[in-house]
Amino acid sequence: MVTSHSTSPTTAASKRHTSNRDLVELIVGFAGIIVILWLPTHQQLIFGPVALLVPLVLVLLRRPSLNELGLGILGFVASLWILPAAVALMIAAVFLAKKIGTFHPLYNADLAHVYGYVLWTMYQQFLLQDYFMPRLTSLLNSNAAIGAAAVLFAIAHLPNLSLVMATLVWGAVSCWLFRRHRNLYMLGLAQGLLGLCFAICVPDAVHHHMRVGLGYFHYH
Fold it and tell me: Which domain range does residue 150 map to?
């Protein structure tokens, strides 16, 4: 006699198939990003857009709603506190950097560069929360998935050890906040502000103009 708590062979096979697919997509997506980061600049410009668009397509193929993606109104009001919190942290960091003498102007401070950087941080949050976290969550428990996502996020910033440490912490915090509020807007903007703050408060000689991968070694 089969109880109501039994798992049918079909259901078990379906779960295994989904887990295997998630694992393959996780490995392929992360490997693609790492390879692109370690290519020379010319090759990055050619292959980079492909490596970034493939995860987007794979996410959209599952037909998630805007709220599931964190792009709807769900959690928006509840997450509004994240931005002023980031601003307060930024002000405190700038004050401290001025005190200890590490504050300096932003490298390439034109508005187009700043806007482009903030858009990039929003897409990073999309990759982290909508591509990597769901796949990690299907393979691990929720807390382990957050830890694994933070580690992957940090590894992607090698060999820039200052960014590795910063993104390890922010990766875990942002994943926890997304799980709580399910909204990307404030997380993307907060990461943009905190990243710009990091760039002006930590010496360029340490973070090499925020470069990662092969570009880190091309800093002058």
Answer: 9-218
